[in-house]
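Hey team,

Filing this mostly as a record. A colleague (T.K.) asked me to run one chain through the structure pipeline before their review meeting, and I want the input and output archived in the tracker in case anyone asks later how it was produced. No errors, nothing strange. Just documentation.

Input sequence:
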Amino acid sequence: MKKMIALVLCVVLACISVLPVFAAEQEPVTEAGTGAITIKGYKPELGDVNRNGVQDVADIVLMRKHFVGSITLSGAGLEAAHVTREETISSEDIVALKKILLGIPV
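Output structure:
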């Protein structure tokens, strides 16, 4: 029970710490027409879907939107979303990124 409470507390604290991220509307990062900067030879960090250099809740939001079909990721953003290295982005990728953010081994 204590572990569950600690996990819930960690999730709440993680969400609170990234609230400013949601204040600014961000366009999903895709290859065409979003103003994304593509660096030749850039290897995305697994989970850094929006390519801002950090893995955060904003990346989870983009992965969920792609998963339900409201946006389409491509290029380095799509590559970074394959956290479990499976062929398609699934709920397992989203759960894996959540674990990474919480410091839980994947």
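Quick notes for T.K.: Residues 2-102 form one domain. The CA atoms of residues 3 and 9 lie 10 Å apart.
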